[in-house]
Amino acid sequence: MKGLFITGTDTGVGKTVVTATILAWLRHQGIKTGVMKPIETGVDAKCSSAANSDALFLMETGNIEDPLEEVCPFRLKHAASPYQAALIDNRTLQPKSILSAYDKLAEKNDWMLVEGIGGVRVPITQEYGVVELIRDLGLPALVVTRYELGTLNHTLMTLETLRHSGIAVKGVVFNRTGPGKLDAIAQDQPRIIKELTDIPVLAEFPYIDKLSTESFSPEYLKKLAGSVDFAGLTRN
What we know:
Layout: E1 2-8, H1 15-28, E2 33-36, E3 39-41, H2 54-61, H3 68-71, E4 74-76, H4 82-88, H5 95-108, E5 111-119, H6 130-137, E6 141-145, H7 151-164, E7 169-175, H8 184-187, H9 189-196, E8 201-205, H10 218-223, H11 230-234
Parallel strand pairs: 1-5, 1-6, 2-5, 3-4, 6-7, 7-8
Helix pairs in contact: 1-2
């Protein structure tokens, strides 16, 4: 199966923006692409929308018609790790349900993008976390990181965890999480990651002002040509 698991060094690094961009690019190439957000926390299933749900944001961005229960099998109200949010709601998350939903989506699509939950060590159950989910799905990981101070530590630890678990790493992408100019230290983070690891830095995503599901237009994708290696991201 062709696909990527988009994980991050932390929560809030921009995994949804990166996933939506790759999704839009693949769809623009005429490739039938499915998307999955296995678990979502901090959403109320009765009133969520693309404005506050990553799963619905991705579905709207890519004109995804697959059922929401397959795209996002578990949706939890409290903004916490999946394990903690499930404990609050007195629920037990079943990784087998996620794998089953993924198989259904994979059968219908030529490519799959799976957006993770926080970082690789985030717990789903007491004995099963995001890194185990990536392993069981059998997809290579794409690591999204920030430019800010501390990113070297978070990125290197994430890469080490993935390698220790036998997971192939497609590459690292940097994402701008706010407006304004990057200082010299922040600008140098991609170079240092390249220097300290053998993992390629495949993209530097700009900050998107007034982000919406309509932000990922063909014109926007063209503007990214110099900073995003789409061929590298989607190469087997």
